[in-house]
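LAB NOTEBOOK - FOLDING QUEUE
OPERATOR: T.R.
BATCH SIZE: 2
PURPOSE: Compare the predicted structure-token outputs for two unrelated chains run back to back under identical settings.
PRIORITY: normal
REVIEWER: second-year student, initials M.K.

ITEM 1
FIELD SEQUENCE / FIELD STRUCTURE:
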Amino acid sequence: GQRYAGFNHSHLTEMLQEREGVKISRPSVRRIVLAAGMRSPKTRRASKHRRRRERYPKEGMLIQVDGSKHDWLEGRGPELTLIGSIDDATGKVPFALFREEEDAQGYFLLLRGMVRRKGIPLAIYHDRHGIFERSAWEGPGSLEEQLLGEEPRTQFGRLLGELAIESIAARSPQAKGRVERLFGTFQDRLVSELRLAGAKTLEEANRV
């Protein structure tokens, strides 16, 4: 029926095995679905960039983080922001969570979840959001920072400093390619799983 409508062939194969106990190959799923007159949703293709930044060589060295505001619940509930992370070396997701908005508290919770699961990373790669970087008009920073001649930092920036995590700001949207592609995958797969679970609230979305 319509239970798995919107799932691409690979995702449907995984769901049948995980949720229904049906072990069937992806080519077989594809043949059955096509025979039933249903097409797989279009897969997303990564945009081509002129130069790719080299991946960090080992897991835990660099984590990319970002927030994605989207209609994750497809109108069943409020529009949410997914705050997520991806390991630069492996493409694994250390932690992610839904928030009402992209906010500092969300990134504090993200970092706590990442550290509990995977330990402290060497560096975090992020955009130039005010959560990570202070604007000049916000003032000169703390007295300690002024005395040490340091750049003024946000609360989140100070936490990174206390944990000895290097803070790296992306110079362009393209530089965050891996985390952007992760959100593309989430928008294909996670939306379908939230629909399958019938999630309607922030709490239910986070449980999924």
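ITEM 2
FIELD SEQUENCE / FIELD STRUCTURE:
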Amino acid sequence: MSKLRQLKQKRAEPGGEKQLSQPKTEQPISKLKAIQLKHQPDLNQETLDANQHFQTPGDGKPFKQLLEQYQAALQTDVQRLSTKDTIEDKAAMKKELLPNYMPFVEDYMANGHDYPNSVAVMMMVWLFDIGDIEQGLHLGFYLVKTPKQTMPHGFSSTMETFICDYTYDWASAQIKEEKTASPYLDNLVKVLLDAKWELAMPVKSKMLNMMAKNAFLKGEFKACVSWCEATQKVNPEGHGTKTLMSKALKEIEKLEQAQADKE
């Protein structure tokens, strides 16, 4: 029995949750209903309509019911994703599905909610998966500040580590193509330092190291040296910045010599 059918049956039982008498209005669930009817044709119109007795997001218990509706739809979509064989195909489907869920997630943030929201967490993962680093970080920063959140089943890292790992991989790819990872890398490192995220030493070290590499790429050699020194302080034995720092110091020396020659 599907979760929606179980919810309906529970409300229909004596002593079950009292249904609210509310006029039907166009709410975010209308889009969700269309999704469910498309991918779960065994759910008839009456079944879905019976679960629309909530109002707009932010009204306490009704909002929880809205979350349950989206969780049910997400479970179906996750099952559909499992049928895709390649990472590229999965990413393409996630990109197609994201607009169905993001209005709900955006309402969640706009209303300042902090209750556990598995839908929002999964959308953060999907945003990183499709390479939308800007929106992924925006949502991730919000979720990290609500400590009740948990990563989806199968993820062994904390949310902070997950965000760092994905951003590091993205920034590394950018720099290999000689493209700057700013401002997103910079924003993340500022947040993790200011908020004092609890990160394993190798994770924090590699993020500072990536800042040094990004600074060097941008020609900000003094900043590069500073980030190298910060990395060495965090990870004295395995900082991996010796060569990069040497190159940056040589570039600084060249610039200073060029300036002296002009004077």
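REVIEWER COMMENT (ITEM 2): The CA atoms of residues 205 and 231 lie 5 Å apart.
FOLLOW-UP: none requested
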